[in-house]
Amino acid sequence: MSLVPQDFLPAIGPWVSTLDDVWPGAAVKPYFAHWEVGHLVAMLMLGGASILLNLRLIGFGLSDQTPSEVRRDVAPWLHAGVFGILFTGLLIGASNPDRLYTSEAFTAKMLGLAAALILTYGVSLPLARADGRAGSVTRLLGLMGLVIWALSLYVFASAKLVNPGLWHVLTAAALIVLFVSRGLTRIVYLAGLIGLILIQFVTTHIVIKPDDFTRLDPANKAFFWVFLVWILGAAAVQTLSAGRGEHGGAFTKAMAYAAILVWITTAAAGRWIAFA
Fold first, then answer.
1. In the chain, where the domains are located
2. Which of 91, 184, 209, 240 has the fewest C-beta atoms under 10 angstroms from its C-beta?
């Protein structure tokens, strides 16, 4: 089933096709690359602020500050980054509307963006303000954000020529878990990752020839799921072994993981729009 905007919003097709001929799309189009740079800078600002905030909720990072103190310091940068990506994204979209209108990656990006805004403003920031304590509204918004993020991942995984972009999200998850793990858990986890990487390389470069896509694609998909199970397992061990801690329990830590990765999902889907 195709999930491009053109299929479920066909009535706006004529309007979309005119966006790059009128202001502001027509004005932005000659300077598309400049606005793209602005979009990436805003994304980096947002990503850095989100990582600092949510790593603290997980229990690592700026450990000399409480989550509420970290929130106070990074919130202005987080707000500026979100405003920047929305503002530049609207202008970039207006200058290149037809590609977005026919892109499943764009659908995944918009779903991811909705989930990211919910998990950031409805969950992460309130959790940090309360130093990790979660109320009923925060838990409900967390569930809502996870459901929308899951839908984004489904669209991303289903899109032809785009789904390899999910390896970016998986890689980010692997690195975050490696960073926050400690002691024997980190050693075992890292050894498992290295072993899986070596096995995948041998399988997809020696056992299966690189041009044998009939066998190569299923093999890589299978490895994706194996990596995912390993990473989620290590994240669960880290979360549960850390206990409730001083600033929140398993829910707070799980939401912090999700709040980082949902932005990475959104960014990865955006980068893969060109391949749709």
1. 5-275
2. 184
